[in-house]
Design goal:
53% helix, mainly alpha
């Protein structure tokens, strides 16, 4: 992964200087939501931290791999998932994890 290479093989992607603004900054994620809403409509889930997590994962993937397409998904490094969950925790501690794409 190109972004991981930028921080060095032994370093975590969360050490990259762009990780915080891309995945943890709520003002950036609010701007990302504007684009999301324009393309896909309102989010089904209305719990704020859940929305932020979803947008953080999407923005992180876009930053690392660019646009992947509708049915192409990647596994996000566990250190990034953990950091995003710490920033935007679920009240019950329940997370869905990686979900393969639904095929039409």
């Amino acid at each position: 992964m190109h972004r991981c290479e930028q921080v060095g093989g032994a370093a975590c992607i969360t050490a990259h200087p762009c990780f915080e603004p891309v995945a943890l900054n709520t003002f950036v994620l609010q701007a990302v939501y504007g684009t999301y809403r324009q393309l896909y409509g309102d989010m089904e889930n209305t719990v704020l931290n859940s929305c932020y997590r979803h947008l953080a994962y999407k923005n992180f993937v876009r930053w690392c791999w660019g646009y992947l397409g509708r049915h192409i998904r990647v596994v996000i490094p566990s250190c990034a998932v953990t950091r995003i969950r710490e920033q935007f925790p679920d009240n019950t501690g329940t997370y869905s994890g990686f979900q393969p794409p639904l095929l039409d």
